[in-house]
Input
Amino acid sequence: MNHLSGVVLICCLAASAGAQDLFDLQGHIDRAVAAGQKTITVPPGRHRVAPHDRQHLVLRGLKDTTIVADGAELVCTETTRALTIADCTNLTLRGLTIDYDPLPFTQGRLTALSADKKVHDIELFDGYPAAAAARNFKYEIYTPDTRLLRCGDHYPASVTPTGERGLRVTMNQGAAADPEQVGDIIVIGAEFAPHGSIPHAVECSASTNVRLERVTLYASNCFGFLEYNCDGSVYDRCVIDRRAPGDDPVKRADPRARSLDADAFHSKHALRGPSYLGCVARYMGDDGINICGDYHLVGSAAGTELRVLAKQRLNIAVGDPVELLTYEGRRLPNATVTAVTRLDTITDEERAWLVKQRMDEGLRSRECREAWQITLDRAADLPRGSLIASARRMGNGFRVIGCEFGFNRSRGILIKASDGVVANNRLVGNWGPAILCSPEFWWLESGSSNNVAIRGNQITDCRSRAIVVEATGGAGLFTGTPAAAGAHNNITVEGNQVSGGPQPSVVLTSILGLRLTGNRFVGLPAGTEPIKLTNCEQVNQSDNQ
Output
């Protein structure tokens, strides 16, 4: 079977399955809204739903509304958005389960490896999308016995079907000593979206006081829950996990090894930060939580006038307090914006400088296009490459309490915001830092943190550091130099328990005003020091053992 005929077969089979027993969930809710109902009940049961305009369900402009979906499951019949929430106020959604059929990933077994391990031959398991549906996204390798990640990230050069259920994945780099083995389980993104696809399972935008309660996700083509430009969202006991075979309505030759293809919870540009309360996220293809805003690059500065190269779209407004970070990583006192004016596109000379920076390729080559003039209420010494961000739009006031994150390929909890708490969470087997508090020049994600408490968390067997609070400017990515004290202010790391993982377990830099007390390190190897401080001032440190 050639590639094209394989795609046609997949589309025909999926379309045939999707045509059976479709439920008009959108119509059910729209009719209740039109009738003036403020409490809307979705009938229990598994509901196969077809997408409209690449979305299986859209909740837009709802106010003071509760949707009760206890015992209801939304089965997405194409690998595109499950749920869009937009421009809503005081909306509660309770009890909904979301899954995909066909799945947005496929799964198989490594049957052969080249001597340099650059070429992987794979036979896909029955019950998963066929080879023609595979796409070059989030390729991960798991051990067959523990069913945990075998190794870190792989970024294939190509993914080629070799038959209906055969794949060949070719790497740019590889070595005989690499850890993958014949017999390992692989998972890679897959797509069935004949009507078009947009990313993420649940996206919430421009909404206030949205509450998602006991919503469960078993799959997503990218992020699980993404919100942006929201205010005061609450995620209460939401769950992301790989579906157990006994509960999976589709018979598969091998149980699912992955849940989501990327991040579990991701918040961007929130006015009041989100609250994640008692949530669970495991086996996803990227971070557990990321709370952040946007940095924009300073092209030049003259007194109070800044020429700013915007990351995608500028999200700084007149009246905003702004965080200012020099290229070397020194944080200046916040200023206030008095004027914002669109100028032009960035110049060839600015682009030439930009492509030399250590940052994401998309930002360097494509996404930073517009130039703006921003006027501050005071002069600021900001050389090219310095950063500016709205301090109102980065998720300040967040809470991450009583959650569990684990067995994912990256960070557990990633914070780039202020005035928040990370408390009483359980983190197990993260491949990146379990808890990381740091702005990221690489992604131009803000910001630095003030008044953050990391308290009472239990961290077990993480592959990287347990707790990291750090900061660098753009120059620091070349030199490895952390920012001076004062990038972060008033940080508490207290009463956490760490077992396993590399040493030092706790790495803290660039902090002015640090409380570091009562942390416990279980099974600490003899002669190792679990805490490392760099560029920290005004430190209160006691009873760590």
In short: Residues 293-390+458-545 form one domain. The chain is about 10% helix and 40% strand. Confidence is low (pLDDT under 50) at residues 1-19. The first helix runs from residue 3 to 18.
